[in-house]
Amino acid sequence: MTGDAGMHEAEHAARVLEAIRARIDGAGGWLPFDEYMELALYAPALGYYSAGARKLGAGGDFTTAPEISPLFGHCLAGQCAQVLQGLGGGDILELGAGTGRLAFDILSRLAAEDALPARYRILEISADLRERQQSLLTRLPQAAATRVEWIDAPPAVSWQGVLLANEVLDALPVQCFHWDGEGVQERGVAVDDAGRLVWKTRTASADLATEAIRLRDDARADWAPGYASELCSRVAPWIASVTGSLSRGVALFTDYGLPRGDYYHPGRSTGTLRCHYRQSAHEDPFAHPGMEDITAWVDFTRVAEAADAAGLEVLGFATQAALLLGLGIEQELLAIADETGRIRGASEARQLLMPGEMGETFKAMALGRGWDHPLQGFTIQDLRARL
């Protein structure tokens, strides 16, 4: 990092920390973790996704599946094509499109197959990521590039097609809790005497305590004193918001996560919070506020509950490996013409498919409205019974 860049980052970090301390002070010295996470990630001009830090890919803080290989986008293009054809046409809406690589790979493949959507809409809150997306997508064939548009909120007018969200659910703010053997404590954020951000617990609200106990009972778990985890009460309203105007079609979510019984297993006793900073993962959400990504694994059972509340059907739940195999990743590899490309593609496919990489850690869930056909990506595996 150059001197000027380092100085800019230090100044920005100081502004973020000042804003967080002020919010904590205004809240009486303690802030629920979900409010801290929302501020650190999304505060206008300050939060990680609102300010101008380089987040994804080379030189960024983390790498997503579309950044690893175009194989991911080419496979998802097949799923999009199936749905669009079955509907007789429609749009694709991508939430949080990152660098634009997934959109580029999907549209490139759909253009080659003469299967483009009417529109490819991108809902992106990060100004710098939107600029990167626009720069990349201008390189598409004109027939595809002219169908891309950016929106600032979920569509208000009814539409049909495919909604895509890759690594979006994990960035929804979560509440953190602690089981002390007798009751539920809420973990929040305070400032110590040295001005540092620190964890601080207090007795949980009745709503949070009731919900944590429900999760424990659903998971049939016997938590030992000291057990800590998190929950995302924002999933249901968020799912309802982003899918509310989808009249017919499929919403496909890919993210790292688990069904509830595994998520709240007694052996997973320290929760799933993870932070990403300069290609390094760690578990301290106070290390670089506003300068690092903060995530939590997804409770896919909660997503299924949210779908039911929103009038959606859970059409499929599988590992990422099963999704990509169902969508023909092996055929994609065989179709690579040159030997060097096949070798590179095989290495990329291992990262996407292997259990020790992304293959099983990442899951895929399809939600549908007005769609009653089997989805190609979920023909190999059906994990819905585990939800």
Integer-rounded radius of gyration = 21 Å
Helix content: 25-40%
Main sheet record: 8 strands, mixed
Level-1 CATH class name of the largest domain: Alpha Beta
Instruction: Note the gap between the termini.
Output: 45 Å
Identify the overall geometry.
Answer: globular
In total, the number of strands is 16
- Please state roughly what percent of the residues sit in beta strands, choosing from under 5%, 5-15%, 15-25%, 25-35%, 35-45% or over 45%: 15-25%
Element-level helix/strand string:
HEHHHEHEHHEEEEEHEHEHEEEEHEHHHE
Which CATH architecture of the largest domain is right? 3-Layer(aba) Sandwich
* Structural domains: how many: 2
Can you tell me about this structure?
The chain is of the alpha/beta class and 387 residues long. It folds into two domains: 3-58 and 173-230 and 271-282, no CATH class; 65-172 and 235-268 and 293-386, Rossmann fold (3-Layer(aba) Sandwich). Helix content is 38%, strand content 23%. It is built from 14 helices and 16 strands. The protein has helices at residues 3-26, 33-42, 65-68, 70-87, 101-112, 127-137, 142-145, 206-218, 235-243, 260-263, 300-309, 320-326, 329-334, 339-353; strands spanning 31-32, 91-95, 120-123, 148-151, 159-166, 175-179, 184-191, 197-203, 227-231, 246-258, 274-277, 280-282, 293-295, 298-299, 313-319, 362-369. Strands 2, 3, 4, 5, 10, 14, 15 and 16 form an eight-stranded mixed β-sheet that branches. Strands 1, 6, 7, 8 and 9 form a five-stranded antiparallel β-sheet that branches. The chain has a three-stranded antiparallel β-sheet with strand order 12-11-13. Helix 4 packs across helix 5 and helix 9 (235-243) packs across helix 11. The longest helix has 24 residues, at 3-26. It is globular. The model has no long low-confidence stretch (mean pLDDT 94).
